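Sample entry (676 residues):
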Amino acid sequence: MSSLKEVCDGIPDPLPPRRQRDETVPHAPVRTPDLTPAEQRLALQNALRYFLPNQHEVLAHEFADELRNYGHIYMYRLLPTFDMRAYPIDEIPGRNRQAAAIIHMILNNLDPRVAQFPQELVTYGGNGQAFSNWAQFWITLSYLSEMSEEQTLVMYSGHPMGLFPSNPAAPRLVITNGMVIPNYSSREMYEKMFALGNTMYGQMTAGSFCYIGPQGIVHGTTLTVLNAARRHLGTTDMRGKVFVTSGLGGMSGAQPKAATICGCISVTAEVSKEALEKRHNQGWVATIANNLDECISKIRHARRQKEAFSIGYHGNIVDLWERFVEEYENTGDLLVELGSDQTSCHNPYLGGYYPVQVTYDESRIMMHEDPIRFKNLVQESLRRQVTAINKLSDLGLYFWDYGNAFLLEASRAGADVGRDESATGTLFRYPSYVQDIMGDIFSLGFGPFRWVCTSGCPSDLDTTDEISANVLEDIINEGVPETIKQQYNDNIRWIREAKTNKLVVGSQARILYSDQVGRTKIATAFNNAVKDGKLKGPVVISRDHHDVSGTDSPFRETSNIYDGSAFCADMAVQNVIGDACRGATWVALHNGGGCGWGEVINGGFGLVLDGSQDAGDRAQKMLAWDVSNGVARRCWSGNNNAEETICRTMDQNKSLKVTLPNHVQDLDLLDRALQE
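Predicted structure, serialized as tokens:
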């Protein structure tokens, strides 16, 4: 029986007894790396490097079985047997609080209540790994528990490269995930490199150890649904309005909760019975419909009652969209006003999207045993789904892409999504939610700021909720532009209602959207509360990589960048470097996340507020950069909101000097000059 302390001591000798994967709980689909015999040999050799030579004989045969059966060597023998959860920081072995706080975050990422496939170290998104194998987990915790403030742990795609001498001002942890030479950043190469143990897809907050469960996206989804109703339905009263989407496995599990907070009716399709029941048991889905007739009946009843209500449909989203078309054709009733999709389409052929033509169980077998046929079925299913959505859109449905590569993969499948390539970027028939809604919020400097109370005490979370709401109210009272005031008011309401909405799954964490001023003042107030003993332990501040500055993604975060630079990744890379230079406790830079491998570069940070003056100074400097970097880039691309925001920030901080664009007033000049 392993304990947290035993794991922090490193890989044991002798080894624990062999363990098999538990088939009774959700587990990751079998991977299909298509390795040659020489590559299989190399994968096995690479895996054995973590173990003493006297352990190789027994492990070689065991790992060969895993490679054959699952397409990857996860090292199930090392599955910890202790209760995996975010232990209070005072119970975590270690020589310093910063490293202990990182362990707290890692344990939360792999908590079975939080993680999607914890046995395979997948936190969310179908293949968003915290580590590539369990040996990496044991070694990483061992390093963190022994490290001093004069050392930095360096991690290459889940692999703990080692503790290197540094200094107290340096990050305690530097992570890179999936950093591949660009010409080799293809899905096929990824599968090989992952199987070889050389790289890893860390999604966003999976591989950076900053995931806080589905709450992490609830607030953003709430804002998206609310603003979609404001802009396209002309109302903020969503009673009786129906929002239809799919996916409940990981972050997508936030959708029904967000819709309920908005006051509308949500219908979320999910093919996995285990994922659906997990969200239902957690209270994130109110009721389950096991067939289409039952689902339609529940929708009609909820529409009549005009009640905020969440329905989890156990079935395929394509069947549901096609049934809505059928209902309209038979009755003249359009039963859905808003629609989106949160299947993991960044990974469509390995469990991210399940085709309508076959069952869930049949799909999980076919994707491994007959991947070509499976891919064809997925693409046919995507075409059918888009055809139904298009018909409903013509009748009044407002549909948007949630940045999960749904429209990108649909276009590659030949679906009618109206893909239009231009010098400024890629446009589809349906906008990305960033293009249409969240992009303006990012340009104001607002994004998903979050924190974790490492004491594990719910009372600490209550205190931080109160502190953050009071800080935002004070900022409003000092006077802010109307556009900023609306954002603050939305977030004050969010925080005041957060406990009632029961958002916590796993660590005692919270998220809100704030700008640079709000983030720095909230962080300062938290640090002071730790110093004064109002909080029982340090607070980790962080954010989603999906933020103002954290991600370059032409089909999501930077889809509203129209100067032709949407495919450039300088912003995300500079952000991580800048955070490391200004005091982050740890930083991470990833290939992939959201829209998938090769489609995104993103990064994030964690910063431990321990009540010290040093922590307060770090927060001030780092958060100012972490927001202004992205606002400056968006300003240079021509966004008016961003230009107003960065100019206001320069007025507040005379040390900040940003290059502003000189806009071309006479656009006809461009044509005249080119025609000469």
